[in-house]
Design goal:
heterodimer; A: Amidase signature (AS) enzymes; 11 strands; B: mainly alpha; flat
Chain lengths: 490, 115
Amino acid sequence: MKEIRTFTARKLAEKIKQKEISVAEAVQAALEQIGSVEGEINSFVTLDEEGAMKQAARIQKEIDSGELRGPLAGVPAAVKDNLCVEGLPATCSSRILENFVPPYTAEAVLNLKKAGAVILGKTNMDEFAMGSTTETSAFGITRNPWNTDYVPGGSSGGSCAAVAAGECFYALGSDTGGSIRQPASFCGVTGLKPTYGTVSRYGLIAYGSSLDQIGPVAKDVADCAAILEAIASYDKKDSTSLNRKDRDFTAALKDDVKGMKIGIPRDYLGEGLEPDIKAAVLAAAKALEEKGAFVEEFDLSLVEYVVPAYYVIACAEASSNLARFDGVKYGYRSREFEGLHQMYKKSRSEGFGPEVKRRIMLGSFVLSSGYYDAYYLKALRTKALIKQAFDRAFETYDVILGPVAPATAPEIGKSLSDPLKMYLGDIYTVSVNLAGLPAMTLPCGLDEKGLPIGLQLIGDCFQEKKILTAAYAYEQTREWKNCNIQEVSA
Amino acid sequence: MYIREQEEQTLQEVEKKQDKNIISDETIEYVGILAKLELSGEEREQAKKDMKEMLDYIDKLNELDTAGIDPMSHIFPVNNVFREDVVSNGDDRENLLKNAPETKDGSYLVPKTVE
Protein backbone atom coordinates (compact mmCIF):
# COMPACT_ATOMS: atom_id res chain seq x y z
CA MET A 1 0.00 0.00 0.00
CA LYS A 2 2.78 2.39 0.94
CA GLU A 3 4.35 1.90 -2.46
CA ILE A 4 1.17 2.71 -4.37
CA ARG A 5 1.02 6.28 -3.20
CA THR A 6 4.45 7.05 -4.63
CA PHE A 7 3.23 6.24 -8.16
CA THR A 8 2.53 8.93 -10.71
CA ALA A 9 -1.03 9.01 -12.06
CA ARG A 10 0.03 7.46 -15.35
CA LYS A 11 1.98 4.66 -13.69
CA LEU A 12 -0.94 3.87 -11.40
CA ALA A 13 -3.37 3.78 -14.34
CA GLU A 14 -1.01 1.39 -16.13
CA LYS A 15 -0.90 -0.93 -13.08
CA ILE A 16 -4.68 -0.80 -12.88
CA LYS A 17 -4.94 -1.64 -16.56
CA GLN A 18 -2.56 -4.59 -16.05
CA LYS A 19 -4.77 -5.70 -13.12
CA GLU A 20 -1.84 -5.49 -10.71
CA ILE A 21 -3.81 -3.02 -8.60
CA SER A 22 -7.57 -2.55 -8.40
CA VAL A 23 -9.22 0.87 -8.44
CA ALA A 24 -10.53 0.18 -4.93
CA GLU A 25 -6.99 -0.53 -3.71
CA ALA A 26 -5.79 2.73 -5.23
CA VAL A 27 -8.59 4.62 -3.50
CA GLN A 28 -7.85 2.85 -0.22
CA ALA A 29 -4.17 3.75 -0.48
CA ALA A 30 -5.11 7.41 -0.88
CA LEU A 31 -7.66 7.29 1.94
CA GLU A 32 -5.16 5.61 4.24
CA GLN A 33 -2.64 8.33 3.62
CA ILE A 34 -5.33 10.98 4.12
CA GLY A 35 -6.22 9.27 7.39
CA SER A 36 -2.67 9.42 8.65
CA VAL A 37 -1.59 12.94 7.57
CA GLU A 38 -4.75 15.01 7.19
CA GLY A 39 -4.83 15.99 10.86
CA GLU A 40 -1.50 17.72 10.33
CA ILE A 41 -1.77 18.94 6.71
CA ASN A 42 -5.50 19.80 6.31
CA SER A 43 -5.55 19.70 2.49
CA PHE A 44 -9.24 18.90 2.26
CA VAL A 45 -12.36 20.89 3.03
CA THR A 46 -14.67 18.01 2.07
CA LEU A 47 -13.78 14.34 1.88
CA ASP A 48 -16.12 11.90 0.13
CA GLU A 49 -14.90 8.46 1.23
CA GLU A 50 -18.17 6.67 0.59
CA GLY A 51 -18.65 8.30 -2.81
CA ALA A 52 -15.06 7.48 -3.76
CA MET A 53 -15.55 3.76 -3.07
CA LYS A 54 -18.77 3.77 -5.12
CA GLN A 55 -17.02 5.52 -8.01
CA ALA A 56 -14.19 3.00 -7.73
CA ALA A 57 -16.57 0.06 -8.18
CA ARG A 58 -18.24 1.65 -11.22
CA ILE A 59 -14.97 2.67 -12.86
CA GLN A 60 -13.45 -0.77 -12.26
CA LYS A 61 -16.34 -2.31 -14.21
CA GLU A 62 -15.84 0.16 -17.06
CA ILE A 63 -12.13 -0.63 -17.17
CA ASP A 64 -12.76 -4.39 -17.08
CA SER A 65 -15.28 -4.14 -19.91
CA GLY A 66 -12.81 -2.15 -21.99
CA GLU A 67 -14.99 0.98 -22.08
CA LEU A 68 -12.37 3.02 -20.19
CA ARG A 69 -8.83 2.87 -21.55
CA GLY A 70 -7.30 6.31 -21.00
CA PRO A 71 -4.04 7.12 -19.18
CA LEU A 72 -5.91 8.31 -16.07
CA ALA A 73 -8.57 5.59 -15.76
CA GLY A 74 -9.16 4.61 -12.16
CA VAL A 75 -6.80 7.17 -10.64
CA PRO A 76 -8.01 9.00 -7.47
CA ALA A 77 -7.88 12.79 -7.72
CA ALA A 78 -8.86 15.87 -5.70
CA VAL A 79 -10.59 19.03 -6.87
CA LYS A 80 -10.17 22.60 -5.61
CA ASP A 81 -13.19 23.79 -3.67
CA ASN A 82 -14.10 26.56 -6.14
CA LEU A 83 -15.05 23.91 -8.72
CA CYS A 84 -18.57 22.54 -8.61
CA VAL A 85 -19.08 18.81 -8.21
CA GLU A 86 -22.74 17.84 -8.04
CA GLY A 87 -23.73 16.74 -4.56
CA LEU A 88 -20.51 17.83 -2.82
CA PRO A 89 -20.31 21.19 -1.02
CA ALA A 90 -18.45 23.94 -2.93
CA THR A 91 -17.45 26.44 -0.26
CA CYS A 92 -14.59 28.37 -1.88
CA SER A 93 -13.28 28.11 1.71
CA SER A 94 -15.73 30.86 2.64
CA ARG A 95 -18.37 31.07 5.38
CA ILE A 96 -20.72 32.63 2.86
CA LEU A 97 -20.85 29.37 0.86
CA GLU A 98 -20.49 26.99 3.80
CA ASN A 99 -23.76 25.20 3.01
CA PHE A 100 -23.77 25.51 -0.77
CA VAL A 101 -24.15 22.18 -2.57
CA PRO A 102 -24.08 22.75 -6.33
CA PRO A 103 -26.75 21.00 -8.38
CA TYR A 104 -24.35 20.51 -11.31
CA THR A 105 -20.73 19.61 -12.09
CA ALA A 106 -18.06 21.84 -13.65
CA GLU A 107 -17.21 20.97 -17.26
CA ALA A 108 -13.54 20.32 -16.41
CA VAL A 109 -14.55 17.86 -13.67
CA LEU A 110 -17.06 16.16 -16.00
CA ASN A 111 -14.22 15.73 -18.50
CA LEU A 112 -12.05 14.19 -15.77
CA LYS A 113 -14.84 11.82 -14.79
CA LYS A 114 -15.15 10.75 -18.42
CA ALA A 115 -11.43 9.96 -18.29
CA GLY A 116 -12.10 7.65 -15.31
CA ALA A 117 -11.07 9.83 -12.37
CA VAL A 118 -12.23 8.95 -8.87
CA ILE A 119 -13.00 12.24 -7.11
CA LEU A 120 -11.88 11.92 -3.48
CA GLY A 121 -12.98 15.33 -2.28
CA LYS A 122 -12.56 19.08 -2.38
CA THR A 123 -9.36 20.86 -1.42
CA ASN A 124 -8.73 23.87 0.76
CA MET A 125 -7.86 27.24 -0.74
CA ASP A 126 -7.58 30.91 0.08
CA GLU A 127 -11.11 32.28 0.43
CA PHE A 128 -12.49 32.79 -3.10
CA ALA A 129 -8.92 32.17 -4.36
CA MET A 130 -7.80 35.51 -2.88
CA GLY A 131 -4.45 34.99 -1.23
CA SER A 132 -1.02 33.45 -1.67
CA THR A 133 -0.78 31.22 1.41
CA THR A 134 -4.12 29.35 1.93
CA GLU A 135 -4.26 31.18 5.28
CA THR A 136 -7.36 33.20 4.31
CA SER A 137 -9.47 30.00 4.26
CA ALA A 138 -12.42 30.13 6.65
CA PHE A 139 -11.86 26.43 7.40
CA GLY A 140 -8.35 26.47 8.80
CA ILE A 141 -4.91 26.71 7.30
CA THR A 142 -3.21 24.03 5.21
CA ARG A 143 0.37 23.14 6.10
CA ASN A 144 3.26 22.51 3.72
CA PRO A 145 4.08 18.76 3.69
CA TRP A 146 7.80 19.56 3.33
CA ASN A 147 7.83 21.43 6.61
CA THR A 148 4.62 21.94 8.50
CA ASP A 149 5.78 25.27 9.96
CA TYR A 150 5.49 26.73 6.47
CA VAL A 151 2.54 27.60 4.24
CA PRO A 152 1.82 25.54 1.10
CA GLY A 153 1.34 28.71 -0.94
CA GLY A 154 -1.96 29.67 -2.51
CA SER A 155 -4.54 29.93 -3.51
CA SER A 156 -4.57 26.26 -4.65
CA GLY A 157 -2.63 25.31 -1.50
CA GLY A 158 -4.89 22.37 -0.62
CA SER A 159 -4.56 20.80 -4.08
CA CYS A 160 -0.76 21.15 -4.10
CA ALA A 161 -0.27 19.98 -0.51
CA ALA A 162 -2.53 16.96 -1.15
CA VAL A 163 -0.41 15.89 -4.16
CA ALA A 164 2.86 16.53 -2.31
CA ALA A 165 1.70 14.54 0.74
CA GLY A 166 0.50 11.59 -1.35
CA GLU A 167 -3.15 12.12 -0.34
CA CYS A 168 -4.18 11.96 -4.00
CA PHE A 169 -2.40 11.20 -7.27
CA TYR A 170 -3.20 14.53 -8.90
CA ALA A 171 -5.53 17.47 -8.42
CA LEU A 172 -7.22 20.33 -10.21
CA GLY A 173 -6.46 23.90 -9.24
CA SER A 174 -7.31 27.29 -10.65
CA ASP A 175 -4.88 30.07 -11.55
CA THR A 176 -5.92 33.74 -11.65
CA GLY A 177 -2.55 35.30 -10.82
CA GLY A 178 -0.32 32.32 -10.07
CA SER A 179 -2.65 30.26 -7.86
CA ILE A 180 -1.55 26.95 -9.39
CA ARG A 181 2.09 27.76 -10.13
CA GLN A 182 3.10 29.39 -6.84
CA PRO A 183 1.73 26.69 -4.47
CA ALA A 184 2.98 23.93 -6.82
CA SER A 185 6.40 25.53 -6.57
CA PHE A 186 6.21 25.84 -2.75
CA CYS A 187 5.09 22.19 -2.42
CA GLY A 188 7.59 20.71 -4.88
CA VAL A 189 4.99 19.48 -7.38
CA THR A 190 4.32 20.21 -11.06
CA GLY A 191 1.52 22.54 -12.16
CA LEU A 192 0.27 24.01 -15.39
CA LYS A 193 -1.84 27.05 -16.22
CA PRO A 194 -3.18 26.66 -19.76
CA THR A 195 -3.77 29.36 -22.39
CA TYR A 196 -6.87 31.36 -21.43
CA GLY A 197 -9.94 29.66 -22.95
CA THR A 198 -8.40 26.16 -23.20
CA VAL A 199 -10.30 24.69 -20.24
CA SER A 200 -13.97 25.60 -19.79
CA ARG A 201 -14.68 27.80 -16.77
CA TYR A 202 -18.27 26.52 -16.56
CA GLY A 203 -18.77 25.49 -12.94
CA LEU A 204 -15.70 27.38 -11.68
CA ILE A 205 -16.84 29.95 -9.12
CA ALA A 206 -15.46 33.14 -10.67
CA TYR A 207 -12.84 35.44 -9.16
CA GLY A 208 -11.36 37.42 -12.08
CA SER A 209 -13.16 36.10 -15.15
CA SER A 210 -10.73 37.47 -17.74
CA LEU A 211 -7.82 35.85 -15.87
CA ASP A 212 -9.15 32.58 -14.35
CA GLN A 213 -8.04 29.24 -15.83
CA ILE A 214 -8.34 25.72 -14.44
CA GLY A 215 -5.27 23.51 -14.67
CA PRO A 216 -3.57 20.35 -13.37
CA VAL A 217 -1.39 19.84 -10.30
CA ALA A 218 0.58 16.59 -10.53
CA LYS A 219 3.74 14.71 -9.68
CA ASP A 220 5.44 15.10 -13.03
CA VAL A 221 5.29 16.71 -16.46
CA ALA A 222 3.79 13.68 -18.25
CA ASP A 223 0.90 13.55 -15.76
CA CYS A 224 0.25 17.27 -16.29
CA ALA A 225 0.10 16.76 -20.06
CA ALA A 226 -2.29 13.82 -19.72
CA ILE A 227 -4.58 15.68 -17.31
CA LEU A 228 -4.65 18.78 -19.51
CA GLU A 229 -5.50 16.60 -22.49
CA ALA A 230 -8.43 15.21 -20.49
CA ILE A 231 -9.84 18.51 -19.21
CA ALA A 232 -9.34 20.77 -22.25
CA SER A 233 -12.49 21.07 -24.34
CA TYR A 234 -14.59 23.52 -26.30
CA ASP A 235 -17.68 24.37 -24.30
CA LYS A 236 -20.57 26.47 -25.53
CA LYS A 237 -21.51 27.15 -21.92
CA ASP A 238 -18.36 29.30 -21.50
CA SER A 239 -18.40 32.17 -24.00
CA THR A 240 -14.61 32.55 -23.69
CA SER A 241 -13.96 28.87 -24.48
CA LEU A 242 -11.73 28.34 -27.52
CA ASN A 243 -12.25 25.64 -30.11
CA ARG A 244 -8.66 24.40 -30.25
CA LYS A 245 -7.62 21.60 -32.56
CA ASP A 246 -4.23 20.93 -30.97
CA ARG A 247 -5.24 19.27 -27.72
CA ASP A 248 -2.86 16.28 -28.08
CA PHE A 249 -0.60 17.67 -25.37
CA THR A 250 1.02 14.31 -24.54
CA ALA A 251 2.54 14.34 -28.05
CA ALA A 252 4.90 17.03 -26.72
CA LEU A 253 6.56 14.70 -24.19
CA LYS A 254 9.83 14.49 -26.09
CA ASP A 255 13.31 14.69 -24.68
CA ASP A 256 14.48 16.99 -27.47
CA VAL A 257 15.20 20.69 -27.09
CA LYS A 258 17.82 20.96 -29.82
CA GLY A 259 17.55 24.39 -31.37
CA MET A 260 14.84 25.57 -28.98
CA LYS A 261 15.26 29.25 -28.17
CA ILE A 262 14.88 30.02 -24.48
CA GLY A 263 14.91 33.55 -23.10
CA ILE A 264 15.49 34.46 -19.45
CA PRO A 265 14.11 37.89 -18.54
CA ARG A 266 16.99 39.78 -16.93
CA ASP A 267 14.31 41.72 -15.02
CA TYR A 268 13.30 38.44 -13.28
CA LEU A 269 16.76 37.90 -11.81
CA GLY A 270 17.31 41.26 -10.15
CA GLU A 271 16.91 42.61 -6.66
CA GLY A 272 14.51 40.78 -4.38
CA LEU A 273 15.12 37.30 -5.77
CA GLU A 274 16.59 34.89 -3.21
CA PRO A 275 20.11 33.78 -4.26
CA ASP A 276 19.26 30.06 -3.84
CA ILE A 277 16.37 30.42 -6.28
CA LYS A 278 18.44 32.35 -8.79
CA ALA A 279 21.14 29.68 -8.69
CA ALA A 280 18.66 26.79 -9.07
CA VAL A 281 16.82 28.45 -11.97
CA LEU A 282 20.04 29.28 -13.81
CA ALA A 283 21.28 25.72 -13.25
CA ALA A 284 18.08 24.42 -14.88
CA ALA A 285 18.65 26.77 -17.82
CA LYS A 286 22.19 25.44 -18.09
CA ALA A 287 20.88 21.85 -18.16
CA LEU A 288 18.63 22.74 -21.10
CA GLU A 289 21.50 24.51 -22.83
CA GLU A 290 23.63 21.39 -22.48
CA LYS A 291 20.85 19.48 -24.22
CA GLY A 292 21.10 21.74 -27.24
CA ALA A 293 18.76 24.62 -26.45
CA PHE A 294 19.87 28.17 -27.18
CA VAL A 295 19.64 30.14 -23.93
CA GLU A 296 20.18 33.86 -23.38
CA GLU A 297 19.05 36.67 -21.10
CA PHE A 298 16.92 39.52 -22.44
CA ASP A 299 14.95 42.53 -21.20
CA LEU A 300 11.25 41.79 -21.00
CA SER A 301 10.43 45.26 -19.54
CA LEU A 302 7.41 46.53 -17.57
CA VAL A 303 7.95 43.96 -14.80
CA GLU A 304 7.44 46.53 -12.01
CA TYR A 305 3.99 47.42 -13.39
CA VAL A 306 2.46 43.95 -13.56
CA VAL A 307 1.42 43.67 -9.90
CA PRO A 308 -0.42 47.04 -9.67
CA ALA A 309 -2.15 46.44 -13.04
CA TYR A 310 -3.13 42.94 -11.95
CA TYR A 311 -4.61 43.97 -8.60
CA VAL A 312 -6.72 46.73 -10.19
CA ILE A 313 -8.13 44.36 -12.82
CA ALA A 314 -8.55 41.31 -10.57
CA CYS A 315 -10.23 43.30 -7.77
CA ALA A 316 -12.50 45.12 -10.23
CA GLU A 317 -13.68 41.82 -11.68
CA ALA A 318 -13.98 40.28 -8.22
CA SER A 319 -16.18 43.14 -6.96
CA SER A 320 -18.55 42.46 -9.85
CA ASN A 321 -18.40 38.65 -9.68
CA LEU A 322 -18.93 38.50 -5.92
CA ALA A 323 -21.97 40.78 -6.07
CA ARG A 324 -24.03 37.61 -6.54
CA PHE A 325 -23.47 36.56 -2.93
CA ASP A 326 -26.33 38.48 -1.36
CA GLY A 327 -28.09 35.93 0.85
CA VAL A 328 -30.99 35.37 -1.56
CA LYS A 329 -30.44 32.38 -3.85
CA TYR A 330 -27.68 30.50 -2.03
CA GLY A 331 -25.20 30.88 0.75
CA TYR A 332 -25.26 32.56 4.11
CA ARG A 333 -28.05 34.92 5.18
CA SER A 334 -27.66 37.08 8.27
CA ARG A 335 -30.05 36.22 11.07
CA GLU A 336 -31.02 39.74 12.04
CA PHE A 337 -31.70 42.58 9.64
CA GLU A 338 -34.18 45.27 8.80
CA GLY A 339 -35.24 45.32 5.18
CA LEU A 340 -33.72 44.00 2.00
CA HIS A 341 -30.66 46.26 1.75
CA GLN A 342 -29.55 45.61 5.28
CA MET A 343 -29.99 41.91 4.62
CA TYR A 344 -27.60 42.14 1.66
CA LYS A 345 -25.08 44.20 3.62
CA LYS A 346 -25.14 42.14 6.79
CA SER A 347 -25.09 38.79 5.00
CA ARG A 348 -22.06 39.85 2.98
CA SER A 349 -20.26 41.55 5.87
CA GLU A 350 -20.69 38.52 8.13
CA GLY A 351 -20.06 35.96 5.36
CA PHE A 352 -16.88 37.30 3.73
CA GLY A 353 -13.45 37.31 5.40
CA PRO A 354 -11.11 40.34 5.60
CA GLU A 355 -9.06 39.69 2.44
CA VAL A 356 -12.18 39.23 0.30
CA LYS A 357 -13.71 42.43 1.71
CA ARG A 358 -10.46 44.30 1.08
CA ARG A 359 -10.46 43.28 -2.58
CA ILE A 360 -14.18 43.96 -3.11
CA MET A 361 -13.73 47.45 -1.61
CA LEU A 362 -10.72 48.22 -3.81
CA GLY A 363 -12.50 46.83 -6.87
CA SER A 364 -15.63 48.87 -6.19
CA PHE A 365 -13.48 51.99 -5.78
CA VAL A 366 -11.49 51.62 -9.02
CA LEU A 367 -14.72 51.04 -10.96
CA SER A 368 -16.56 53.97 -9.39
CA SER A 369 -17.44 57.05 -11.36
CA GLY A 370 -14.59 59.54 -11.24
CA TYR A 371 -11.91 56.85 -10.73
CA TYR A 372 -12.77 54.42 -13.52
CA ASP A 373 -10.52 56.10 -16.12
CA ALA A 374 -7.64 56.83 -13.78
CA TYR A 375 -7.43 53.34 -12.34
CA TYR A 376 -9.39 50.71 -14.24
CA LEU A 377 -8.79 51.91 -17.80
CA LYS A 378 -5.20 52.77 -16.94
CA ALA A 379 -4.68 49.17 -15.79
CA LEU A 380 -6.29 47.81 -18.98
CA ARG A 381 -3.98 50.02 -21.06
CA THR A 382 -1.02 48.73 -19.07
CA LYS A 383 -2.25 45.19 -19.74
CA ALA A 384 -2.13 45.94 -23.49
CA LEU A 385 1.51 47.09 -23.11
CA ILE A 386 2.39 43.96 -21.12
CA LYS A 387 0.85 41.79 -23.83
CA GLN A 388 2.91 43.66 -26.44
CA ALA A 389 6.09 43.07 -24.44
CA PHE A 390 5.41 39.31 -24.44
CA ASP A 391 4.53 39.38 -28.16
CA ARG A 392 7.92 40.94 -28.86
CA ALA A 393 9.69 38.36 -26.70
CA PHE A 394 7.97 35.46 -28.45
CA GLU A 395 9.09 36.79 -31.84
CA THR A 396 12.56 35.67 -30.73
CA TYR A 397 12.03 32.93 -28.14
CA ASP A 398 10.07 29.68 -28.01
CA VAL A 399 9.97 29.63 -24.23
CA ILE A 400 10.58 32.14 -21.45
CA LEU A 401 12.31 30.65 -18.40
CA GLY A 402 12.46 32.12 -14.91
CA PRO A 403 11.59 31.74 -11.24
CA VAL A 404 7.99 31.33 -9.99
CA ALA A 405 8.31 33.53 -6.92
CA PRO A 406 11.04 35.69 -5.38
CA ALA A 407 11.14 33.50 -2.26
CA THR A 408 10.30 29.94 -1.20
CA ALA A 409 7.35 29.24 1.12
CA PRO A 410 7.02 31.71 4.02
CA GLU A 411 6.44 30.59 7.58
CA ILE A 412 2.86 30.28 8.74
CA GLY A 413 1.48 33.51 10.20
CA LYS A 414 4.04 35.85 8.61
CA SER A 415 2.22 37.06 5.48
CA LEU A 416 -1.27 38.39 6.13
CA SER A 417 -0.29 41.39 8.27
CA ASP A 418 1.27 43.14 5.27
CA PRO A 419 -0.96 42.53 2.23
CA LEU A 420 1.05 44.74 -0.13
CA LYS A 421 4.23 42.79 0.61
CA MET A 422 2.34 39.54 0.00
CA TYR A 423 1.02 40.85 -3.34
CA LEU A 424 4.59 41.71 -4.44
CA GLY A 425 5.39 37.98 -4.25
CA ASP A 426 3.20 37.59 -7.36
CA ILE A 427 5.61 39.57 -9.56
CA TYR A 428 6.67 36.66 -11.81
CA THR A 429 3.26 35.00 -12.12
CA VAL A 430 0.50 37.59 -12.67
CA SER A 431 1.73 38.87 -16.06
CA VAL A 432 1.05 35.41 -17.53
CA ASN A 433 -2.64 35.74 -16.62
CA LEU A 434 -2.84 39.33 -17.89
CA ALA A 435 -1.46 38.17 -21.26
CA GLY A 436 -3.50 34.91 -21.33
CA LEU A 437 -0.35 32.79 -21.73
CA PRO A 438 0.28 29.15 -20.79
CA ALA A 439 2.92 28.54 -18.13
CA MET A 440 4.06 25.68 -15.98
CA THR A 441 6.15 25.12 -12.93
CA LEU A 442 8.21 22.14 -11.89
CA PRO A 443 10.67 21.57 -9.05
CA CYS A 444 14.29 22.49 -9.75
CA GLY A 445 15.94 22.26 -6.35
CA LEU A 446 15.77 22.97 -2.64
CA ASP A 447 16.81 26.09 -0.76
CA GLU A 448 19.02 26.17 2.31
CA LYS A 449 16.00 25.50 4.53
CA GLY A 450 15.20 22.37 2.52
CA LEU A 451 12.10 23.91 0.91
CA PRO A 452 11.33 23.30 -2.79
CA ILE A 453 12.25 25.80 -5.50
CA GLY A 454 10.14 25.97 -8.67
CA LEU A 455 11.19 26.64 -12.24
CA GLN A 456 8.69 28.54 -14.40
CA LEU A 457 8.40 28.03 -18.16
CA ILE A 458 6.15 30.44 -20.07
CA GLY A 459 4.95 29.94 -23.64
CA ASP A 460 3.18 32.08 -26.20
CA CYS A 461 -0.60 31.63 -26.48
CA PHE A 462 -1.45 28.08 -27.68
CA GLN A 463 2.17 26.91 -27.22
CA GLU A 464 1.63 24.55 -24.27
CA LYS A 465 3.49 21.91 -26.22
CA LYS A 466 6.70 23.94 -26.31
CA ILE A 467 6.73 24.42 -22.55
CA LEU A 468 5.82 20.77 -22.02
CA THR A 469 8.75 19.68 -24.19
CA ALA A 470 11.16 22.01 -22.36
CA ALA A 471 9.81 20.86 -18.97
CA TYR A 472 9.97 17.19 -19.94
CA ALA A 473 13.53 17.51 -21.22
CA TYR A 474 14.62 19.29 -18.06
CA GLU A 475 12.88 16.69 -15.90
CA GLN A 476 14.97 13.94 -17.52
CA THR A 477 18.15 15.67 -16.31
CA ARG A 478 16.88 15.99 -12.76
CA GLU A 479 17.93 13.21 -10.41
CA TRP A 480 14.76 13.60 -8.45
CA LYS A 481 12.35 12.65 -11.21
CA ASN A 482 9.02 12.44 -9.46
CA CYS A 483 8.00 14.53 -6.56
CA ASN A 484 9.05 13.04 -3.28
CA ILE A 485 6.20 11.92 -1.16
CA GLN A 486 6.74 13.78 2.04
CA GLU A 487 6.69 11.64 5.12
CA VAL A 488 4.73 13.80 7.48
CA SER A 489 5.49 13.15 11.09
CA ALA A 490 2.19 13.61 12.81
CA MET B 1 17.91 81.10 -3.03
CA TYR B 2 16.96 79.38 -6.23
CA ILE B 3 17.89 75.99 -4.81
CA ARG B 4 15.90 76.68 -1.66
CA GLU B 5 12.81 77.46 -3.72
CA GLN B 6 13.19 74.30 -5.70
CA GLU B 7 13.54 72.23 -2.55
CA GLU B 8 10.37 73.72 -1.12
CA GLN B 9 8.54 73.09 -4.31
CA THR B 10 9.64 69.46 -4.37
CA LEU B 11 8.61 69.05 -0.78
CA GLN B 12 5.19 70.47 -1.59
CA GLU B 13 4.87 68.07 -4.47
CA VAL B 14 5.81 65.16 -2.25
CA GLU B 15 3.25 66.22 0.36
CA LYS B 16 0.62 66.67 -2.29
CA LYS B 17 1.37 63.22 -3.62
CA GLN B 18 1.19 61.69 -0.16
CA ASP B 19 -2.12 63.38 0.52
CA LYS B 20 -3.67 62.45 -2.76
CA ASN B 21 -4.95 59.06 -1.70
CA ILE B 22 -6.11 59.83 1.82
CA ILE B 23 -9.47 58.13 2.03
CA SER B 24 -12.13 60.23 3.73
CA ASP B 25 -14.98 58.85 5.82
CA GLU B 26 -17.35 59.90 3.04
CA THR B 27 -15.38 57.93 0.45
CA ILE B 28 -15.28 54.77 2.52
CA GLU B 29 -19.00 55.15 3.23
CA TYR B 30 -19.67 55.50 -0.50
CA VAL B 31 -17.50 52.50 -1.40
CA GLY B 32 -19.33 50.52 1.29
CA ILE B 33 -22.62 51.33 -0.45
CA LEU B 34 -21.23 50.25 -3.84
CA ALA B 35 -19.72 47.08 -2.38
CA LYS B 36 -22.77 46.34 -0.21
CA LEU B 37 -20.56 45.91 2.82
CA GLU B 38 -21.19 47.22 6.31
CA LEU B 39 -17.90 47.78 8.10
CA SER B 40 -17.45 48.10 11.83
CA GLY B 41 -15.55 51.12 13.17
CA GLU B 42 -12.32 49.18 13.40
CA GLU B 43 -12.77 47.65 9.95
CA ARG B 44 -13.42 51.10 8.46
CA GLU B 45 -10.17 52.52 9.80
CA GLN B 46 -8.27 49.49 8.54
CA ALA B 47 -9.99 49.72 5.14
CA LYS B 48 -9.05 53.42 4.84
CA LYS B 49 -5.44 52.61 5.59
CA ASP B 50 -5.31 49.54 3.30
CA MET B 51 -6.94 51.37 0.40
CA LYS B 52 -4.59 54.34 0.71
CA GLU B 53 -1.58 52.02 0.69
CA MET B 54 -2.81 50.12 -2.35
CA LEU B 55 -3.68 53.30 -4.27
CA ASP B 56 -0.29 54.84 -3.48
CA TYR B 57 1.25 51.70 -4.92
CA ILE B 58 -1.10 51.52 -7.93
CA ASP B 59 -0.19 55.14 -8.76
CA LYS B 60 3.06 53.68 -10.03
CA LEU B 61 1.15 53.00 -13.25
CA ASN B 62 1.13 56.77 -13.86
CA GLU B 63 4.84 56.55 -14.71
CA LEU B 64 3.80 54.75 -17.88
CA ASP B 65 2.83 56.68 -20.97
CA THR B 66 -0.30 54.93 -22.20
CA ALA B 67 -1.50 57.69 -24.56
CA GLY B 68 -2.95 56.16 -27.69
CA ILE B 69 -3.07 52.64 -26.19
CA ASP B 70 -6.52 51.06 -26.25
CA PRO B 71 -7.65 49.44 -23.00
CA MET B 72 -7.45 45.66 -23.42
CA SER B 73 -10.19 43.79 -21.60
CA HIS B 74 -9.78 40.41 -23.28
CA ILE B 75 -6.78 38.78 -24.93
CA PHE B 76 -8.88 37.09 -27.61
CA PRO B 77 -11.89 38.61 -29.33
CA VAL B 78 -15.02 37.80 -27.36
CA ASN B 79 -18.01 37.03 -29.54
CA ASN B 80 -21.59 36.41 -28.67
CA VAL B 81 -22.46 32.73 -28.71
CA PHE B 82 -25.91 32.34 -30.22
CA ARG B 83 -28.23 29.37 -30.10
CA GLU B 84 -31.77 28.63 -31.17
CA ASP B 85 -34.32 29.82 -28.64
CA VAL B 86 -35.17 26.31 -27.52
CA VAL B 87 -35.14 25.15 -23.92
CA SER B 88 -32.42 22.52 -23.53
CA ASN B 89 -32.18 22.19 -19.74
CA GLY B 90 -34.79 20.51 -17.62
CA ASP B 91 -36.82 22.01 -14.79
CA ASP B 92 -34.37 22.07 -11.92
CA ARG B 93 -36.42 24.34 -9.66
CA GLU B 94 -36.47 22.05 -6.66
CA ASN B 95 -32.74 21.40 -6.77
CA LEU B 96 -31.91 25.07 -7.15
CA LEU B 97 -34.21 26.11 -4.32
CA LYS B 98 -32.50 23.64 -1.99
CA ASN B 99 -29.61 26.08 -1.65
CA ALA B 100 -31.76 29.10 -0.83
CA PRO B 101 -31.74 30.43 2.76
CA GLU B 102 -35.53 30.86 2.65
CA THR B 103 -38.17 29.82 0.15
CA LYS B 104 -41.93 29.99 -0.13
CA ASP B 105 -44.25 28.31 -2.64
CA GLY B 106 -41.39 27.40 -5.01
CA SER B 107 -39.84 30.88 -4.94
CA TYR B 108 -37.02 32.66 -3.14
CA LEU B 109 -38.24 34.51 -0.08
CA VAL B 110 -36.81 37.98 0.64
CA PRO B 111 -37.81 40.75 3.04
CA LYS B 112 -40.58 43.05 1.88
CA THR B 113 -39.16 45.38 -0.77
CA VAL B 114 -42.18 47.48 -1.83
CA GLU B 115 -44.42 49.13 0.69
